[in-house]
Design goal:
Elements (H helix, E strand, L loop, with lengths): L1 E7 L2 E7 L6 E7 L7 E10 L1 H11 L4
Antiparallel strand pairs: 1-2, 2-3, 3-4
Length: 63
């Protein structure tokens, strides 16, 4: 299952959520107006939705 969230400044976050546990296994930040365009992070273990959003914000500061 996926959930899409707008991070503002034309950045979009997609969370890949395990339907059984409700935890996030991967995130993608898409910034179409930026030269890097996409940031993807696979978590070595599944994390909560809040932890995934925080990682997306910290990981995409350079966007």
């Amino acid at each position: 299952m996926t959930e899409e969230i707008s991070l503002g400044n034309d950045k979009n976050l997609t969370l890949y959520i395990n339907e059984t546990t409700g935890l996030v296994s991967k995130i993608e930040v898409d910034a179409p107006n930026n030269k890097m365009r996409k940031y993807t992070h696979h978590f070595p273990y599944h994390v909560t939705r809040e932890e995934a959003i925080q990682q997306a914000i910290v990981g995409s500061i350079g966007f």
